[in-house]
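A sample copied in:

***
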Amino acid sequence: MHTRHREPQLLGNEGTLERMALILAARNIDPADAAALPDDPEPYSPLDALLAGMPPRYQSAVADHPMVLDWVRKVTEAAVAPSRGARRQVTTGPSLLMAGVVGAGKTHQAYGAIRALVESGVGVRWRATTAADLYADLRPRPGVDSERELAAVSRCPLLIIDDLGAAKASEWVEEITYRLINRRYNLMLPTLITTNLAIKHLRSYLGDRVASRLAEMTTRVEFEPLDRRRYRAAA
C-alpha cells in the first residue's frame, strides 16, 4: 500500500469545501443538488471528517487485534483537554510497531485504530505516509524546504508510517529515519509503524540508534504469516 502523506487533520472542526464535497460523494449526493438540501443540514460528525481524509480502501477499517485495541485504550486515556470543557486531544502516548508479511492486515489495523480513537470521543490530528513516500518528500531538491517538512512530520500528534523497511537502505535513509524517530521519541508522540521485516531484522536495516529507540517507545506486534489479500482473492 502506497499512500502519499496527508496534512494533519483536526477532527471535529467545520469541514472545508473540499471535505464537504468528499462527504457528499460518500453519501451519493450530487453536489448540484446540494442547494435543495434543508437549511439546517445534519452537522458533520468527527467520524465524517475522518472518513473524508482516509483512503477509500480503508474507510471501513476496523481494528480488532487485542494489542491494537489495547494501544487505542492507552492513547485515549493519555488524551488531555486544552481547556475546560474542550474536547480531549491526543497529545502524547505510546507507539505501536506491527510486523508481518505482506497482506497480513497491518495497514487495515492501523487505520482501524485511528477510527477507534475518534469513536472513543477524542480529537486527533493525524498523518499517514508510506516510508518510501516519506523519503521521497524529504529528499533535498530545489524549491522544497525538506527541513521544514521533516519538522512538520516530526511534530504531528499521531503519525502512521507504513511499510518501514520497504525502501532501499542507505546512509541517508538511516539518518532521516533516525532524526524522525528520535524527535518523536523525545516528544513522546504516538506513532503507528508497520513493517514487512521480521522484528529481529530491524536492527540490521535501521541501524542501532533507531532500533534502540523503537525498542523502548513501541509495543511490538507480530502478525500471523498469512497474506490475507491472496486468501480473500482465492476465496
User: Anything to note?
Assistant: Residues 154 and 179 are 9 Å apart (CA to CA). Strands lie at 9-10, 95-99, 125-130, 158-162, 191-195, 218-222. Confidence is low (pLDDT under 50) at residues 9-15, 36-42. The first strand starts at residue 9 and ends at 10.
